[in-house]
Write a structure and sequence with these properties.
alpha/beta
Length: 295
């Protein structure tokens, strides 16, 4: 799978008066400026990519109840194939192949944990601007992955669907995408969504175009109308988004759908990311509180 483009993101404040931690445990209070504003009293404070745990809060603050035991919908930004290859002195294509082999154990672990929907960022719209040689290699590897891994996952009840553009893929690959979707349409154990030639901004632009073409009265446009015009209207919003390789940004991935998602950023490069890391991320999610803007 591919290495994703970089954008900028900055962490915000942690909670004043309690140990603040970045997801992945890399930022502590003594690393943060002393003039940061406190979090809301009686609730965990949060910064971009960070969260204060209940056991870090003053003892007088009551914990919330009804924690989810597992994230039902998870998305992964699979990042780090290129750096993995560079560290081993091999070509970037070998890094992408190693990344493709890392996918199946994670999918199988998701099934074991009761995850119902898994979205993986396989190829972004920006990846198409890479060298012709690398893009061609990625298309070849993608086809290999369909034949070797994704088709076989159907035997474990995995339905695979592709989200994004297809018109720029080679004809032979477009056929493979459609054939796999048709072959797995009856599977119900796990929905696997593969973001291929996908970009969050492009998705929103396309949704706006479709809405305009539909002739809907502007006064009737609301969130539900926008959601119905996304690439995959029936894809559930992720509860949890995981990004590998230590980068702390979303890179144009599921911009609409991840509005209320929890994020976990891990240092592990994608080819080395496996069941243990996936389980740890899901367990981290289960320890958090989500309010969707409420109290």
């Amino acid at each position: 799978m591919s290495l994703l483009p970089r954008t900028d993101a900055e962490p915000g404040p942690g909670a004043e008066g309690s140990p603040s931690e970045h997801i992945g445990g890399r930022v502590r209070d003594h690393d943060l400026p002393s003039n940061l504003p406190p979090g809301a009293e009686g609730s965990p404070s949060e910064h971009i990519g960070g969260r204060v745990r209940d056991h870090d809060l003053p003892s007088g603050l009551p914990p919330e109840h009804g924690l989810p035991e597992v994230a039902r919908a998870v998305a992964i930004i699979m990042d780090g194939n290129g750096r993995w290859a560079s560290a081993r002195g091999v070509g970037v294509a070998e890094g992408h192949r190693a990344g493709s082999r890392a996918l199946r154990p994670v999918v199988e672990t998701a099934i074991d944990l009761g995850v119902e929907s898994l979205v993986v960022y396989a190829f972004s719209t920006e990846n198409g601007s890479r060298s012709v040689e690398e893009v061609e290699a990625l298309m070849e590897i993608f086809g290999e992955t369909i034949d070797r891994e994704l088709s076989d996952l159907a035997k474990e009840g995995v339905r695979t669907r592709f989200v994004g553009r297809r018109d720029r893929a080679p004809d032979w690959l477009q056929v493979k995408l459609s054939d796999l979707e048709a072959a797995t349409a009856g599977e119900t154990r796990l929905n696997l969504w593969v973001a291929f030639d996908y970009g969050g901004r492009a998705e929103l632009v396309e949704a706006a175009r479709r809405i305009a073409e539909s002739g809907v009265d502007p006064s009737n446009i609301d969130e539900s109308v926008v959601a119905r015009h996304l690439y995959a209207p029936d894809m559930p919003d992720p509860d949890l988004v995981i990004r590998t390789s230590g980068e702390l940004r979303v890179s144009n991935f599921l911009l609409w759908q991840s509005a209320y998602a929890e994020f976990v950023f891990v240092d592990t490069l994608w080819p080395d990311f496996g069941p243990d890391e996936f389980r740890a991320a899901v367990e981290d999610y289960a320890s958090r509180r989500r309010r969707f803007g409420g109290r």
